[in-house]
Amino acid sequence: MVSPEPEDDNLPEPAGLRFLRVLVTVLTVVMIAGIVGILGLIWHRYSNARAPLPEVITLPDGTTATAYTQGSDWYAVVTGDDRILIFDRGTGKLRQEMRIETAE
């Protein structure tokens, strides 16, 4: 009895199968990049979410603002008469007032 020849394991891959394999790989990479991009946009959008600032900041009579800064739940105004007024961001009410003493 004659033994059959062993089949060659290195047969060429059909062109359609090679195209399908490349297409699936490219689509997988595009989907992963899209999901990472969407998650990045969501993170960026909501990481800076804060209470809105008021349209108008009401200062005590006779004061003028010279500087402004803000924190996560407060904002502060430095006035021309050397005071720092700290307001609550949510309510707009004055939280604290500090007088700045000049160094001598």
Outline the structure in words:
By secondary structure, the protein is an alpha+beta fold. It is built from one helix and four strands. Strands 1-2-3-4 form a four-stranded antiparallel β-sheet, with no helix packed on it. Strand 3 (83-88) and strand 4 form a beta hairpin. The chain is rod-shaped and about 115 Å long. The model has no long low-confidence stretch (mean pLDDT 86).
What's the gist of this structure?
With 104 residues, this protein is of the alpha+beta class.
Topology:
Elements: H1 15-47, E1 65-70, E2 74-79, E3 83-88, E4 94-99
Tell me, briefly, the overall form: rod-shaped
Radius of gyration: 33 Å
In round numbers, the mean pLDDT is 86
- Binned, the helix content reads 25-40%
Helix and strand string, N-terminal first?
A: HEEEE
Distance between the termini: 113 Å
Low-confidence stretches: none
Spatial sequence of strands, sheet with the most strands? 1-2-3-4
Number of strands: 4
**Which secondary-structure class do the elements indicate?**
alpha+beta
Beta-sheet strand percentage? 15-25%
Q: Helical stretch count? A: 1
What does the largest sheet look like?
4 strands, antiparallel
